Amino acid sequence: EEQDGDHLVKQMIYLHNTSVERGGAPRNFMTLIDTIDSLYTKRREELIKQQKFLQSGLQKLRESSEVVDKLSSEAVEAERLLKEKQKQAQEKMKEIKANLEGAAHDKQRAEVLS
Questions:
Q1: CA separation for the pair 87, 97 (Å, rounded)
Q2: Closest CA relative to residue 40, chosen from 2, 16, 11
């Protein structure tokens, strides 16, 4: 398997030989090399910029995932606490109801006795 650099060198030699065969001046070949270099540099800069943008987006996604995980665990704990408090409230309501029924029963007995 050829490396990219070796392939590029072979392509440049091919372009040079083709240019010479067709009577191209060395200046034209150098202009071609400068143009290729300019295009390569521009494309490389665009790719680096895009890579940085994507890496930044991935970092934000990771941070968001951490926040979601934290909020989810807090929600589970809050739900558990809520159920516990609801159970305590129901027990208190039963106690209050029993006390009211007991007071009503005591009141009836007091009225009967008086």
A1: 15
A2: 11
What type of residue is 28?
N
Q: Which of 87, 108, 113 is nearest to 100 (CA)?
A: 108
Residue 2 pLDDT > 80: no
Tens digits of per-residue pLDDT, 46-84? 999 999 999 999 999 999 999 999 999 999 999 999 999
What is the residue type of 29? F
pTM for the predicted model, two decimal places: 0.56
Rounded Cα distance between 85 and 20, Å, is 89
Query: What integer best gives the mean pLDDT of the chain?
Result: 91
* Contacts of residue 2, Cβ cutoff 8 Å, sequence gap at least 6: 10
Rounded CA gap, 103 and 110, in Å? 10
Q: Distance (Å, rounded) from C-alpha 71 to C-alpha 64?
A: 10
Amino acid identity, residue 85? K
Contact 29, 19 (CB under 8 A): yes
Count how many residues are written for the chain. Answer: 114
